[in-house]
Design brief:
By secondary structure, the protein is of the alpha/beta class. Strand 3, helix 4 and strand 4 form a beta-alpha-beta unit.
């Protein structure tokens, strides 16, 4: 046996089931070994997209996916997904080759300070210094990735070791599942009291709650207490978006007027406007459930910090409720305020969704998409307007069924995420809703979908540009604004080129038939939908990003 085989046997023993990558010297044999031991290997066209797929697998399964890449430039490309997993707190392993050890410092082939470069974004980073240490290093990689706050790890193997003969290496048992620590019982009682006494309570469900598989506890707690809630973008689906306690259409009002907020696996970072005025009350009381002690009290001091696993702490809150039952009244002035704001927003969006004009607007198109999507489909979303509007228009009814740009705001994740979702859930339809700019980052990965017969449907909302585009380019393309892309580009032909099926849609009459055919196809499909180049979101009460001057 070889070190390449030993690496993959150790990964398989630790419950790692998926590997994505681009092969080349010195790691070709590692990909062959992965297939030999039963790890599902997906060959990509670019390490960047492969690394995004590895992180998405970590989120979807709770076990790290692996991105396999060559040394030097390959590892640097894979660094993108490593950083994305770091920001989103997802377990993944970047496994890279390096130059032979005795070439260090000599200008070896693709010699690069990979270990130093990757260490910034990882919980653990190491080099295989001897084949005997492979089982230990792999176990430590997996354990580090999934225990505590999940995250990325990095392991590299020098080229001269990949094919070294290995005999009688021990097989280490799988590392123990992550513990589910409970919060301090006195803090739980204090939090329950604060929620009981609140006049305008709000619960925010984050993707940390989804990762913790706490959907059952979240639903029981919210339905028992009748507390209104909001979901962060990837917290959508922990409870169905159509749940009566969801205040998504009244998001701005809910945040601005809540007097007590319970954060469940959500961080008060830019996505939640740092928890500060004017987006929040200056006297808001924050109750925060988080697995990471360093996260508690960030930006806004916690009224009650609840250090622990989301699933375990919600169980504690349920027990506290059972001991001293409480429920937010219905009706109440707070519910009326939220319902009024929600109704106004719903009516505004509904009016825009009825505008069946040419060129079409985002709201009309996404409303048609919404009506045709299978209920249990996995939605991948990226882009500017495409993602922001799509988040409000496209429902998620199940947990971990939405993947988007996330905490890092990473453009280019769509195709890697879609492939990962289709690999993990072959029984479910995966739909990637992409802006035309976003699709351009990794559109060649459509070939991967076709090669592995993954029936992903890609819906491109094509407005000819970044944010906004032009109906036609000026005579001298150098005079075009930096936001402009090629007008009326036929991205759907990429699917046709690789054996999938593409659809080009310009009018409302063409829209539903094309979407229906694509969503029911057993092959990869692209529906390229032309939109008004000047179209944008409806007017917002606040800008999407809270600027430093306003903190």
């Amino acid at each position: 046996s070889s070190a390449a085989v030993a690496l993959c046997q150790a990964l398989q023993a630790q419950g790692v089931g998926y590997m994505f990558g681009v092969v080349g010297i010195p790691i070709v044999e590692v990909a062959f070994a992965a297939q030999m031991v039963g790890i599902k290997y997906y060959g990509f066209r670019n390490e960047q997209a492969a690394s995004y797929a590895a992180g998405a697998v970590g989120y979807l399964t709770g076990r790290p996916g692996v991105c396999l890449c060559v040394s030097g430039p390959g590892a640097i490309h894979g660094l993108a997904g490593l950083a994305n997993a770091w920001a989103n707190c997802w377990p993944m392993i970047l496994l890279a080759g390096t130059n032979d050890a005795d070439h260090d410092g000599r200008g070896g082939f693709q010699e690069c300070p990979q270990l130093q470069s990757c260490s910034t974004y990882t919980k653990f980073a190491a080099r295989v210094d001897s084949v005997e240490r492979i089982p230990f290093l792999i176990e430590k990689c997996v354990r580090s990735a999934i225990h505590g706050r999940p995250g990325a790890v990095y392991l590299e193997i020098p080229g001269h070791l990949v094919n070294e003969t290995v005999t009688n290496l021990p097989t280490l048992p799988p590392c123990a599942p992550p513990s589910r620590p409970q919060a301090d019982p006195s803090k739980v009682a204090q939090a329950a009291g604060a929620l009981r006494d609140a006049q305008c309570p709000l619960v925010i469900i984050g993707k940390g709650c989804a990762y913790a598989r706490a959907e059952g506890e979240a639903r029981q707690f919210l339905e028992a207490t009748q507390l209104p809630y909001l979901a962060t973008p990837m917290g959508k689906g922990v409870l169905p978006d159509d749940h009566p306690l969801s205040m998504a259409p009244a998001r701005a009002t809910a945040l601005k007027q809540a007097d007590v907020i319970l954060l469940v696996g959500a961080r008060l970072n830019w996505m939640l406007h740092f928890g500060m005025a004017p987006r929040y009350r200056s006297d808001v009381k924050v109750l925060q459930i988080d697995i990471c002690a360093e996260e508690l009290g960030d930006n806004v001091g916690d009224h009650v910090p609840l250090l622990g696993d989301a699933k375990a702490v919600l169980q504690q809150l349920l027990q506290a409720h059972n001991q001293q039952s409480f429920a937010h009244p219905c009706p109440s002035p707070w519910r009326h305020t939220l319902a009024t704001a929600a109704s106004k927003n719903i009516n505004t969006v509904a009016a825009m969704a009825r505008q069946a004009e040419v060129p079409m607007n985002y709201y009309y198109v996404l409303d048609v998409v919404r009506r045709l999507l299978p209920e249990n489909c996995i939605i991948v979303s990226e882009g500017a307007n495409s993602m922001d509007i799509g988040r409000t228009m496209l429902p998620n009814l199940l947990p971990r069924h939405r993947l988007d740009e996330g905490t890092f705001g990473t453009m280019g994740v769509g195709m890697g995420f879609a492939i990962a979702a289709a690999a993990v859930h072959p029984d479910k339809k995966v739909v990637a809703v992409e802006g035309d700019s976003a699709f351009g980052f990794s559109g060649m990965e459509v070939e991967v979908m076709c090669r592995y017969r993954l029936p992903v449907t890609i819906i491109i909302l094509n407005n000819n540009g970044i944010y906004q585009g032009l109906a036609a380019l000026p005579d001298d393309p150098l005079d075009a604004p930096p936001l402009a892309l090629l007008p009326n580009a036929h991205y759907e032909k990429i699917a046709d080129a690789f054996g999938g099926k593409g659809y080009f849609v310009v009018t409302p009459d063409e829209l539903a038939p094309a979407l229906t055919a694509a969503l029911h196809s057993d092959m990869p499909t692209i529906v390229n939908i032309m939109l008004d180049p000047s179209g944008t979101r409806k007017k917002q009460e606040f800008e999407w990003l809270t600027r430093s001057a306003k903190l």
